Amino acid sequence: MILLTGLYEDADPRRTAELLECLRRNLENEHLEEIHLFAEESLEVERFVRDYPVLAAPRVRLFERGRRVKYADLFAHANEHLRGRRVIIANADIYFDETLARLEGHDLAGRLLCLSRWDVQPDGSVRFFDHPSSQDAWVFQAPIREFACDFHLGLPGCDNRLAWEAERAGLALSNPSRTLRACHLHLSGVRRYSEGQRLHGPTRPVHAGFLDPPRPAPALACASVAFRESMGYTVGRLEAGVSSHNNEPRPFSSIPKTLAGLEFTQVVSMSASPVEVEFLTSGKLYVLVGNDWDGYYPATEWLSEHGFRENLPQVETRRGTGFEVWSLAGEAGERFVLPTQVMLAAERLVRNNGRRAPTFRVTARRGGASAEPIYALTSLPPKPESAGLVRDSIDSWRRAGLEVRAFNHPSEFAQLRKLYDVDLVPVERTTADVFGGHFVPIKAMLDWAAEQNAPALLVNADIQLGLEEWELKRLRWLSDGGLCYFVRYNHDGDPRRAERERYGIDAFLFHGRDVAETPDSFLSMGKPAWDYWLPHMFDARDLPVYAVEFPAGFHHNHTLRWSWDEWHKCAKEFARITGEMNDDQSFEACVAMFLRVRERFDRRRVALPQSPRPIRQWVQKTFRAPGPKTFLELGAHRGDDTAWMSKLPGVTIHAFEPDPRNNPKMRHNVTLHRAAVSDRDGRGLLTLSKEGWGQEWTHSSSIKRPKNHLQRFPVTFGEAVEVKLLTLDTFCRERGLGVIDFIWADIQGAEGEMIRGARQSLARTRYLYTEYSDEELYEGQATLREILEMLPGFRVLELWPDDVLLENTELK
Fold first, then answer.
1. Diameter of the chain by CA atoms?
2. Average pLDDT of 239-254?
3. DSSP 8-state symbol, 95
4. d(Cα 39, Cα 9) in Å, to the nearest integer?
5. Cα distance between residue 376 and residue 463, in whole Å
6. Please, are residues 344 and 351 in contact by the beta-carbon 8 Å criterion?
7. Is the distance from CB of 459 to CB of 378 less than 8 angstroms?
């Protein structure tokens, strides 16, 4: 097979390293005879090949296209040069494993295999991305029938547009990605596309399946089975409302008639181990495999060989997850060992004697106790009609890193626990006397946030967030000390066609310390007027008001759930607690009041940009004026960033690099110091990074011992060498340095040590740009919150997934 893919150098070295690692792994795959790389016009090919020897491998053929490659280019290349060969077109961040061998003997004539991806996790495992609207690789036999595909790889919607055009041209489509793994390496989080680049027009989703359909299941009676495992399963009965797990509620909502009433193993969440089964009677054992489990692929791969896929609908839960139904057939006394956690269902289930005591493994929250939680505060509807949309909203909040708290009357708890898996906060004093139902006053949520002294997103239950965790964290810090409201985007089922809401607002980000002593009011979630109350309150106290005006909060249109009489009642309450109206409280006067209030806080708002500007652009713009400037670069590596910073007018740079393998090029205005910045002066050990992404890796050496770095990145570490340690306070005192204009700190987990040894120097520093991590990549690494606590005079000016730019407000 021949692999065709693009080649480019990303501005972020982490992303480039991922692309090169994919190339290295594909070169190790014996089922790929050649790899044809198509270089983009911006790539300095000779230098790139010189810097990365993997590109000179004998099986690599490099084609300089002079422009970004399109699908049409790659299919045309295959038709012209690879006739009779099997060809794979793939995105540059895809590599293949041994499952390619399963294609042997399969006829690809007239077919196009469209493969969904398997996302590589920080621990090196892969997780299937089961979505019919996403494919990252295409397999075919050249020549292939021509079809319209003159658009670039990597654009949103390109994969399903490609499928539509291919099927229209007469090609047979399939997605056997449950058999063939296209592994997607994208841990850096770097993306170079936007939703505005989405291809419009007809699309064709391609659902995932198997290369060979599973064998049809035989018609057999249900067996009695003994089982043995080590995680502490319990035995229940398959009925609606019963939880699939025994350590957290995940109630069943739909069970196929064939399975209803059978005994089943209630499993343990966040745990996995092999399961031994022995047939006590001849017949069939049903095996249920969770479609959201990490073990889905190894379980179904094993069952494809040893068992059968049942022609039954999924067993579904109220959380929106489900279980595929498989089966094993056996004679009395026959034994199997399933490789990972699954759920068993049989006429009778008996636990084997001699098992180990049950153990429960709990996954700690990312970052441990020192990472700052951000809470989503809401009130949930107890009616099941809207539960699906609300669960989607809750899932989107959790993807954004939020810890969910739902405020409801205790009488609703039993019903809510059947519908949602969230922490409930009891509110006894609701506004039932005002609205005739248990609506929760906004003040109850604000008071809770104030008591927690924590940041919170107050959000209606039907608002879905389109944000990654770091993006929400960025908004939290950019708006620190004020209120950030999210402009709502309404849609009728397709968020891509959402339109901006003109009046209402449904989500507000703030810190609990800024909402203490809120006045009593019956304004409640689910009713009008409270959305203007919050920004008015911050505006009246002369606290900053920020706005997220780009699409980030999405709302599925529905009929109004309040009356205009209630609107008028809430408007008059708003006027009472704000003093915004005189004696005229007519409907018309209330409308005028809200228009006036909205115009006022909108006029003062600061609109936050959707994405941060690259740090290089910010530095070059901020320091473009002539005049002397002092920079400190901590962790100069091989001088790539030193080179462009040294070209700033009037700059003097002190560059620190302790790794003896890194030798940055010196310039007339750059002084190299062979030392590691720390919280003490003397000598210490530097643990050297050894290999990463298939090459020598000198980017990650640190005076801190690696910890979670070992799981998140494919980097190995070797020996520790002794190096000079110094504090910035000592250095600046000995050099007689006054104001420092800018510090660039890339010191691999030693941010806390650097700050503790630079109290005086940082007091004279205008800007600090540093890495951060809440995942303890290195032992004892300071979290972002700890860094900011150590620098009380600094504020967040911008934040990226792993970096933060801080401004010294005392020197502003």
1. 88
2. 89
3. E
4. 9
5. 11
6. no
7. yes
Which secondary structure element, helix H or strand E, spans residue 763, and what is its range?
A: helix 759-763
User: CA–CA separation, 290 vs 775, rounded Å?
Assistant: 28
The answer for 368, left when phi > 0, alpha when psi is -120 to 50, beta otherwise, is left
Tokens of 611: 């994405």
- From residue 475, give the alpha-carbon distance in Å to each of 456, 618, 700, 804: 12, 18, 28, 12
CA distance 657 to 642: 11
Q: What own/partner pairs with CB < 8 Å and gap ≥ 24 does 410-414 have?
A: 411/438, 412/380, 412/382, 412/438
According to DSSP, residue 314 is labeled P
Residue 237 has pLDDT above 50, yes or no: yes
Cβ(79)–Cβ(145) below 8 Å: no
User: From residue 162, how far is each of 168, 169, 592, 607 by CA, in Å?
Assistant: 10, 11, 52, 37
How far, in Å, CA of 628 to CA of 652, rounded? 8
Helix residue ranges, H only, 469-563: 469-478, 530-540
Pick from 307, 274, 314: nearest CA to 292: 314
Q: Measure the CA–CA gap between 672 and 669, rounded to whole angstroms.
A: 10
Describe the crossing of helices 530-540 and 564-578 by its angle, rounded to 10 degrees: 20
Q: What type of residue is 390? A: V
pTM over 0.90: no
CB 443 within 8 A of CB 451: no
Q: Please name which of 367, 605, 610 lies closest in space to residue 466, comparing C-alpha atoms.
A: 610
Query: In sequence order, what are the residues at sequence separation of 6 or more whose Cβ sits closer than 8 angstroms to the Cβ of residue 194?
Result: none
Written in H, E and C, the secondary structure of 678-735 is CCCCEEEEEEEEEEECCEECCCCCECCCECCHHHHCCEEEEEEEEEEEECHHHHHHHH
Query: What is the tens place of the pLDDT at every residue in 452-483?
Result: 999 999 999 999 999 989 999 999 999 999 99
95-120 per-position pLDDT tens digit: 999 889 888 888 899 999 999 999 89
The DSSP result for 196-215, as a single string, is: GGPPPS---------SSPPP
Q: Collapsing DSSP states into helix, strand and coil, what is residue 534?
A: helix
For 36, half-sphere exposure in the C-beta direction (CA atoms, 13 angstrom radius) is 18
Per residue in 252-266, pLDDT (tens digit) is 999 999 999 999 999
